[in-house]
Amino acid sequence: MRADALKNHEKIVEAAAQVFTERGLDAPIDEIATRAGVGAGTLYRHFPTRDDLIDAVVKSWMSQIDAAADEAIASDNSARDTLMAWFETYVTRISRNRGGPAKITSAMGNTDSPIFSKCETLRLANDRVLSRLRERGLLRDGVESLEVCRLVGGVAVVADQAALSPESVSSMLSVLINGLIDEK
Amino acid sequence: MRADALKNHEKIVEAAAQVFTERGLDAPIDEIATRAGVGAGTLYRHFPTRDDLIDAVVKSWMSQIDAAADEAIASDNSARDTLMAWFETYVTRISRNRGGPAKITSAMGNTDSPIFSKCETLRLANDRVLSRLRERGLLRDGVESLEVCRLVGGVAVVADQAALSPESVSSMLSVLINGLIDEK
DNA sequence: ACCTGAACACCGTTCAAGT
DNA sequence: ACCTGAACACCGTTCAAGT
Questions:
Q1: A/B interface, count of CB pairs below 8 Å
Q2: Full set of structural domains in chain A with CATH
Q3: pTM beyond 0.90, yes or no
């Protein structure tokens, strides 16, 4: 890769991160190109589809997910508290940009989506948390990680699109958690 | 209203119902106008926003919702079976057109959405089913109808956008139901 | 009073011409 | 090898001209 191409690549990702934050994941591509100071064609050369661009932007804040999962696993809190803290982190992360929950949750389990690997990171982190609780005998049988990601993602999508308060989200997550934990 | 205006109104709603079924609720407005045989301006005169048009189309199949709720209430099935049948009907109805779950669920509880009254129909029908189960002592405390509509709607949104199978939907609804019923 | 459709605006995407 | 930006396509929305 030539030096100017590399530089442009960086500038585009940086601009995209800004624009996505301000205007959501559906923001005009052209504004990103302008903000990055490159022509539209250059942007398309580096990122043929919007999803490729999203993938590049999401990359940076996905690593924090693993740390959050580790923290949830380490704690000796009740299953309820563990799941609530973890799910709230999950929702917050994927909701960082408007349109994020829908984009990420609908790509979940879809192998040929450009952002599939990011979804896998999420799914595997979630699986680790669930597995830990299962070991402790706190989870109902037959709950699958992918399914839980979709349920929690569904809550995030609705909250994102209807601009719901964090309290509404917690309250919805609470119902989900009731459905997941084994109360003996 | 003049006779030709009335006729056009009907033709537009009819065309919209067709086009929405074929191409989803985000289908090009212009195709609806063409199919109805009217100019774009005429369509906009009758329905200033897309939501106004959606409202008119949704009207017809919303009445069936009340019947489904009545049926759910009348049965002496277990809380689980009652809710599963009702939620599946709920999801099917709002998923009739692609994009329907997102449109309807994000308008839920939003007083100044053009389709608010349709959402109220859904919410009230759901409330009747929940109330009946609560009377029988089968429901956990503190579950609100609006919240349940959003949770079930969230499942429908994800299923719609990720093209999930009916089995996946049932399985997700099952988790929700676990979280709603009081197992003593 | 209502309708038409050309016109404008906006945005995604491509590609000929440049360096 | 990579970049630019004009050009094209598509679609939403308006409005002057018509009946």
A1: 95
A2: 3-48 (1.10.10.60), 59-180 (1.10.357.10)
A3: yes
